[in-house]
Amino acid sequence: MQNNQRLDRQKSYPARCLIGLLLLILISSCGRSVAETAVSTPTATPPQPTATATPTRTEVAAETAVSIPTLTPTPGYPIYTGTPLRPDQMGIQVHLRDEDQDVLFAHLTALGVGWVKVQISWKLYQPHPDAFHAERFAELDQFVQTANAYGIRVLLGVSKAPEWSRPTTELDGPPADFTLFETFMAYLANRYQGQVVAYELWNEPNLQREWNGRSLSAADLVELIRMGANGVRQYDADAVLISAAPATT
Fold first, then answer.
1. What CATH code is carried by the domain that includes residue 163?
2. Which of 13, 83, 222, 244 meets the CB 3.0–4.6 Å disulfide criterion with 202?
């Protein structure tokens, strides 16, 4: 019995070896395929280059020559050919300054005017009841003399009473006592008799800054002018007298 079994095993041995060999080959093939698949590294696909926009070339226009126009000289002012103007009917107002008066009057002569006006601030020329400002009067004396030398007539406008003569020191205005104005105008007429041709009695009385301290009254204004005229007439009966000119409002 045992011998038969041994004989059967011997007969089947080659067949088993063949089957084992086939299995080994099969397993080996599968393992290699799996291994190759596991370690296989895919080839990276290089990125496609991005197209770069080509800048558009801007053509620069050629500079255009600009023609420079020929300047035409402005014609001068037309020369007046009508009736000659009378210098004795034209004038200009100036302010006393520390300047060369000969130069000033040379300009006035070139303008062709026959009158010059100066506004006199009474309070500056008589700062105290019994005293006059010597330096200011010396300057005014020189001005009047120079005007006479050039043949230009002088008009003095007088206003602005001194503070000591007024009821208030705010702004400017007439004196409380109009006889004070009469006295001052008499002093001027005596000093400049025959040299000053005309006097304007006060200035812009319709403005508060020129008539402060008193209510605006036509009667008061007329009285002030009358008193000033009386003062001038005491020493210069030929002087031209002008009433205060109102301001435009």
1. 3.20.20.80
2. 244
